[in-house]
Amino acid sequence: MNPRIDENRSHPRLPDLLAAYHLVNQAEKGTAVATVAALPAVYRAEAEDPAAAFAADTVLLATPPGGDEPVGCVVLKATREGRAPEIKRLWVMPEARRKGLAKALMAEALRRAAASGAPAVRLTVWSWRDEPLALYRGLGFATVDPWDDRPDLLCLEKPLDAVERLSPEAVRAHAADGLAALLVDAVDGGASVGFPAPLDPAEAAAWWAGVADEAQAGVREVWAARGPDGRLTGVVTLVRVGAANGGHRGEIARLLVHRSARGRGLGYRLLATAEAHAAATGLTLLVLDTQTDSPAERLYRGAGWTAAGTIPDFAADPSGVLRPTTLYYKRLG
Question: Per-residue confidence at 163, pLDDT binned at 50, 70, 90?
Answer without folding.
Answer: confident
